[in-house]
Automatic annotation (TrEMBL):
One Pfam family from the record: DUF5994
Organism domain of life: Bacteria
Organism (species): Streptomyces shaanxiensis
Protein name per the record: DUF5994 family protein
Amino acid sequence: MTATISLPPTAEAEVDDRVFSSSSPRLSLAPTGPAPALLDGAWWPRSRDLGAELPSLTAVLDPLWGRITRVTVNPTHWPVVPRKVPVAGHVVKVGWFLAEQDPHELLLLSYGMGRWNLLVVPPQTTPVSAAWLMAAASDPLGTSTASRLMAEAARLRTVSEADRAVEAVWDSEGGHEARDPAARPRIPAVTATLPYQPMGR
């Protein structure tokens, strides 16, 4: 099931953040399947303020997964971890684990219903990287942890930046013009007369 956003891993165009209302969470959920993936999807919050971000997330997830009663995070990327966050109609208890929990993951618990792991896409992530991360984390056959996906996204970003730098050098040296057949200088035709050579023995 997908809520609010689902983008392909090869999204070329940037996602315009204006298509999302300020209250709707940027969220991509993996479809339920027979083989559980390591991640159940991804969440792209707008800030690192759990008190401000959790209410809109639980508003979407409560009807899908049952009432979310507890959330845990790794405090590495969260400056403040509140003990409780009031959400629509109830309170979510928030805990943290430093060594036991992936720093890029949010664990959600629904009493009597189950637990889910979401990759947390950093708020400052570019739309293209976020789209790739959200699609990868929502793959029902995914076998990567949240930290592995973040490392792969960083590697892809580095490769993309290197490609852009090479292309900029190519452009500055006239590379694109040379590839365009209409812009190529025409080579003048040379006509030469060859001496007559009789055929035969």
